[in-house]
Give the backbone structure.
Amino acid sequence: MENFLSDIFIDEEKIQAKVQELGCQLTEDLENKEPVFICILKGSILFFADLIREVKIPLEVDFLKASSYGAGTESPGIVEMAFDLKIDLTDRHVVLVEDIVDSGHTLKYIQNFIRKLKVASLTTCTLLDKPDRRTVDVSVDYSCFVIPDAFVVGYGLDFDQKFRNLPYIGILKESYYSE
Ligand code: 5GP
């Protein structure tokens, strides 16, 4: 798979150190709040699984599916959501766990939906943040890594559903997706 990458952008060690740091912070910030952590599928799977193990307080988990990219690298700006939450979020402290915030459309859409459920609080964490690409104003409470405008894969993030299983974040060779 490495042959398809132009660079390893963030290695495994750096990711794990940041995730641990964020887990400690959330443990402190959410003490006695019995939060519900929501994994935004599919891109957040690895980040989510690692992060919740670093949060050392009782918590619950639930899942939402969001799709905004097809097989390309540019967002069509259309967010497709499958809301099938099993937990009643009314009066709960909710933590959204997102893989990457690019234009901000996906996150904004999800945040608006969650806020309507009359939650006690809403905290948003993202593994990666590309502020240069933002087209909508959206609030992010914790970003592990702020990155420039490049299409990245790995650690849950895909291109055409592949590369999610890389344990690090890599930059895809342009020749791979421009062919
Ligand atoms: P937004 O709605 O913020 O434009 O896009 C968010 C979604 O687009 C992310 O959840 C992710 O699925 C996808 N996305 C944005 N940038 C990248 C990227 O660099 N690599 C990958 N693999 N997906 C991205």
Remarks:
- The chain has a mean pLDDT of 91.
- Residues 12-29 form the longest helix (18 residues).
- Strands lie at 5-10, 36-41, 60-67, 80-82, 93-101, 121-129, 142-146, 152-153, 169-172.
- Residues 43, 68-69, 75, 99-107, 151-153, 157-159 surround guanosine-5'-monophosphate (CB under 6 Å).
